[in-house]
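Hypothesis: this fold can be encoded by more than one sequence.
Test: take the structure tokens below, design a sequence, compare later.
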């Protein structure tokens, strides 16, 4: 119990550079329950005692990594939407940044959307993406005030649509052997999304 409530020690960058890629590679290749700390040790070269110094379990390690990695998307979105005026183009850019991130980090995409048991992740604070939600709220409010988004569409509707399209593209991409870029799906689904939410 003491282990679960202790303050987390910051993982040194040199260990992070070895540990994170190894964990994401293992979890993107194997079923969740087939990966254990011994496998992570063999892949990363970081001893179990060192891993347990920073993380209480493989779940703690994995969800910490996913939280850190996925939080990069909101930061990238905020950079990429600077200067854009049209709500339609801002939301298109949000999709592009999100899917481009997963194209460049396929281990994160597969681990987060395919490998981990959803019920386990739902128990974690990192499952609720407050950072992404706040970006979408800002864009939604702007779209409503500019008369670009249908006021009958709620913020929850917009968030649901965003996640629905991202999940679907990643699932189909993975199912078909990751043979295309996720960003290349945007011209196919985005007109449908925009027609759903716009005036």
């Amino acid at each position: 119990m003491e282990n679960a409530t202790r303050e987390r020690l910051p993982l040194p960058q040199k260990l992070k550079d070895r540990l994170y890629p190894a964990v994401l590679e293992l979890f993107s290749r194997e079923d969740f329950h087939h990966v254990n700390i011994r496998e992570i040790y063999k892949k990363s070269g970081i001893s179990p005692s060192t891993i347990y110094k920073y993380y209480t379990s493989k779940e703690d390690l994995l969800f910490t990594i996913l939280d850190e990695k996925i939080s990069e998307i909101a930061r990238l979105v905020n950079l990429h939407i600077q200067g854009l005026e049209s709500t339609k183009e801002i939301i298109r850019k949000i999709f592009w940044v999100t899917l481009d991130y997963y194209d460049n980090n396929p281990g994160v995409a597969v681990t987060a959307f395919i490998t981990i048991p959803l019920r386990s992740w739902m128990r974690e604070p990192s499952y609720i993406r407050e950072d992404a939600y706040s970006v979408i709220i800002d864009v939604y409010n702007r779209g409503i005030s500019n008369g670009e988004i249908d006021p009958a569409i709620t913020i929850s509707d917009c968030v649901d649509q965003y996640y629905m399209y991202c999940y679907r593209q990643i699932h189909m991409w993975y199912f078909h052997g990751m043979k295309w870029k996720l960003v290349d799906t945007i011209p196919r689904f985005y007109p449908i999304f925009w027609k759903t939410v716009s005036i």
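The domain at 9-197 is CATH 1.10.357.10 (Tetracycline Repressor; domain 2). The mean pLDDT is 92.
Hypothesis status: open.
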